[in-house]
Amino acid sequence: MARSDSLNDLLDQALSPISSLSDLTPTSFSHHDSISHVPSDKVSTIHAVVTQQKSQLAALNDHIDLLNYTLDKLQVIQARLTEKRALVQESLAFHEALVSPARCLLPSELLGEIFLRCLPQKNYVTPSSDDCPLVLTRVCRQWRAVALSTPRLWASLSISLLKAEMSHSAAYKCWLEKARSVPLSIRVVHDMDLSDWNEPLSIQWLRPFLSQCSDLWWHGPPVQGLLDNSVQSLSRFQVTFHKANFLVSIPSPTPQLRSAILQSLTSDLQSLRSIELPWHQLLELKIQFALVSSAAFLQAIDLCTQVQRVNVSCICANVSPQTDLPPSPLASTVNYSIHRLEIKVIRAGLGSLFEALTLPALEELVICFCFPERDPWPHEQFVSFVSRSKCPLKWLTIHRSKGADSHLAEYLKMLPGLKMSV
């Protein structure tokens, strides 16, 4: 308070000469509208007024200069005080952090669990210095130590082979090494243009980590011998190809593999000749192609003797239909394990698929038509399929169907307790 009073005194002292200056008072000549004529006997009086006002103007200029100097000084003082305040705030935050409950009371194990819940809500983490887990290493020494000693924080990674080739492979390798022996979830994006390369792409640095994967998504053209090494812990495998021949091969034993996702939205799937998987182990299968022939689909579920959930799109009677010849009859296929089946239909062929298929364990069926006006609902084939399968169907969902809604009452009578959405 005393310091504030003293500053006020200094300001009052600087302003006191200004208050002592007399105000500008009108003269006997101020009312003249014109300065073209001045009486000769008034010239000396006017000269006296001019001299007085010049002196007053000079005094005002001096005081303005003094005030500007004072303001400059105050701005310098303000800048120094602002700088000191920032230093004090930073020091205060640091010392408060030293005694914060989160720092002093939480065990490292609990802090690590909290860190895990701060990870991005993605299956595969893209490294960013502003996101977890990297940002956790820059808070304080304790957080950095906890983050680096929590392997599960580093068990997920999205890798760009183009960035890896441009010197990022060491950073990717360092990231994955922090996961130690924890099963890995890795997405590999093959985004390199190899048209001008004379040598095959080298991913030797990545192979040891692929053998540690429980979840692997390969996105891009295939690489020869990708999974030649042991992949004992692989439980989920996803492959997405664009503008390339679809080729999948897992020659090594994969006793844990339960889920497979095969995607190529620019290719057709006519057969399984180019796909080598342990089909009999799968519990979940997802096939997404521009077109999937009914024959290839039936072949897949015939091989998947334990699969429970199947999703396929876009299915058709024949990938390369010939107008002059009818499609070949589909082989009858029975699968005793499928509980949920989701099919997206792009060409006529659902009726023949129902005629060939028997699913005694089916509980949920989801059908979606891409072109409902062109492909009507195959009512008779569906009734025959349900009767033949004798399945405990509980949920039936039909999207964009032409004619299915007119048979709702019959389906409910045939399957008491059935829940339908059309």
Offer a quick outline of the entry.
The chain is α/β, with parallel strands linked by helices. The protein has helices spanning 2-20, 43-98, 101-104, 108-116, 141-148, 161-177, 207-210, 294-303, 350-356, 379-389, 408-414; strands at residues 156-160, 184-189, 213-219, 236-240, 248-249, 259-269, 275-276, 284-293, 309-316, 333-334, 340-345, 357-358, 364-369, 395-399, 419-421.
Description:
This protein has 422 residues and is of the alpha/beta class. The protein is built from 11 helices and 15 strands. It has helices at 2-20, 43-98, 101-104, 108-116, 141-148, 161-177, 207-210, 294-303, 350-356, 379-389, 408-414; strands spanning 156-160, 184-189, 213-219, 236-240, 248-249, 259-269, 275-276, 284-293, 309-316, 333-334, 340-345, 357-358, 364-369, 395-399, 419-421. The strands form 3 sheets. The chain has an 11-stranded parallel sheet with strand order 1-2-3-4-6-8-9-11-13-14-15. Helix 1 runs antiparallel to helix 2 (43-98) and helix 9 runs parallel beside helix 10 (379-389). The longest helix has 56 residues, at 43-98. The radius of gyration is 41 Å and the shape is elongated.
Distance between the termini: 78 Å
Order of helices and strands: HHHHHEHEHEEEEEEHEEEHEEHEHE
Helicity, as a percent range: 25-40%
- Beta-strand portion reads 15-25%
Global geometry:
elongated
Rg: 41 Å
User: How does the major sheet shape up?
Assistant: 11 strands, parallel
Q: Residue-averaged pLDDT, rounded?
A: 85
Sheet with the most strands: spatial strand order: 1-2-3-4-6-8-9-11-13-14-15
Q: How many distinct beta strands?
A: 15
Structural class: alpha/beta
Return residue spans where pLDDT drops below 50 for at least 5 consecutive residues: none
How many helices does DSSP assign? 11
